[in-house]
Amino acid sequence: MTHAPVLVIDLQTGMFDGVNEPPIHDAENLVARTRAVLAWARASGHPVAFVRHDGRPGDGLAPGKPGWPVWPALGQAQDEPTFSKSVGDAFSNPELGAWIAGQGAGEVLLLGAQTDQCVAATVKGALAAGLKVTVVADAHGTWDWNGETAPQIIARHNAAFAQAGARVVNTAALTGG
Questions:
Q1: Which residues are annotated as catalytic?
Q2: Which end of the chain is more exposed for a tag (fewer CB within 10 A), N or C?
Q3: Sign of the four-CA dihedral 29, 55, 120, 81
Q4: What is the pLDDT of residues 83-131, one digit of tens each?
Q5: In what side-by-side order are the strands of the sheet with 6-9?
Q6: How confident is the model at residue 3 (pLDDT cuts 50, 70, 90)?
Q7: Helices in the chain by DSSP H: which ranges?
Q8: Closest by alpha carbon to 48, among 98, 95, 82, 16?
């Protein structure tokens, strides 16, 4: 996994601020684990990029809305690009694929939101693009939905990611912390 880029998917203000919906499950710990992965990535030479969902007009994640920016508590560095998307799969933006190719990377590390939507779609998109994928198992999140708790949804998707061929590892194992 030499210098595989880390992609932070849709960890935007609207996921945390509680304005349009409750904060994402275990928000404080999700931010702490994401920051730990980012510190590890930066210290070990892994490029970092952020993916931001551009919601439709009227959506809390629509461009220009208060919920749209990357969550400031993550500490995005000025030289870390942000790639926009309007569908689940971050690889729908060809600029992201070009950036990853420009890093000489055959693998990506993924974390973010929403486990059962954009993270799942991006895992599928990365695998379809022929990339090796590592998912940080405890650094993606969602909300309770359709009779399942967020932890159940996360566990179910981690198992599905592994079954699809992704490596699934928790923050401590990845960062040595």
A1: 118
A2: C
A3: negative
A4: 999 999 999 999 999 999 999 999 999 999 999 999 999 999 999 999 9
A5: 82-85, 48-53, 6-9, 107-113, 132-141, 167-169
A6: confident
A7: 13-16, 27-43, 94-102, 120-128, 150-164, 171-175
A8: 82
| Half-sphere exposure (Cβ direction) of 90: Cα atoms closer than 13 Å | 32
Extract the tokens encoding 93.
Answer: 């933006």
Cα distances from 150 to residues 4, 22, 168, in angstroms, run 28, 13, 18
Positive or negative CA dihedral for 112, 121, 25, 154?
negative
Residue bearing tokens 């990357």: 70
DSSP letters, 29-54, are HHHHHHHHHHHHHHHTT--EEEEEE-
Q: In CATH terms, is domain 6-175 a member of 3.40.50.720?
A: no
